[in-house]
Design a protein that fits this description.
The structure is a single chain. By secondary structure, the protein is α/β, with parallel strands linked by helices. It has a single domain (2-139), classed as Collagenase (Catalytic Domain) (3-Layer(aba) Sandwich). 48% of the residues lie in helices and 18% in strands. The chain contains 6 helices and 4 strands. It has helices at 13-27, 40-51, 77-87, 91-106, 117-128, 135-139; strands spanning 2-4, 32-38, 59-66, 69-76. Strands 1-2-4-3 form a 4-stranded mixed beta sheet, sandwiched between helices. The longest helix is centred in the last third of the chain and has 16 residues, at 91-106.
Length: 147
């Protein structure tokens, strides 16, 4: 299920829901995924409450505890719009990049501890899904790259 609390031109819940299914299958993730697209303030509250970091971030993932429920993803639409503008691609693409990143976290990947495993998987999947440079690629200096 996708909830758009912060509407973005050209991005609909149906489009993001279809993409979430594709990303989930590509990552080998089983179970349902809920996606909340909201503003910086709400993502900041979630980040403070669950990660003890008092700042907004682009995407948060909360793994599920039941095999039929993979988890929840929260995305800041405002940050997605800023990133898209800065990187020269659409906000819709940026939302998909963030969604893919969140799905990979739900699948057990962790770019902070896995010695590049998530970055390699994210790069392979984003190319296969036709997306610009991923979050982990940006962190390593890649700016704009299409498959």
């Amino acid at each position: 299920m996708v909830i758009l609390r912060y509407p973005i031109a050209g991005a609909t819940a149906a489009v993001l829901e279809r993409f979430a299914g594709r990303a989930r299958r590509a990552a080998g993730l089983r179970g349902e995924v809920n996606v909340l697209v909201t503003g910086d303030a709400e993502v900041r509250r979630l980040n403070r409450r669950f990660r003890h970091k008092d700042k907004p971030t682009d995407v948060l993932s909360f793994p599920g505890v039941d095999p039929t429920f993979a988890g929840d993803i929260a995305i800041s639409a405002q940050m997605a719009a800023r990133n898209a503008r800065r990187l020269g691609h659409s906000v819709g693409d940026e939302l998909k990049i963030l969604l893919l990143h969140g799905v990979l976290h739900l699948a057990g990947y962790d770019h902070e501890t896995d010695d590049g495993r998530m970055a390699r998987m994210e790069q392979r999947l984003r190319r296969g899904l036709g997306l610009p440079a991923s979050l982990t690629e940006r962190a390593n200096g890649v700016r704009r790259r299409r498959p």
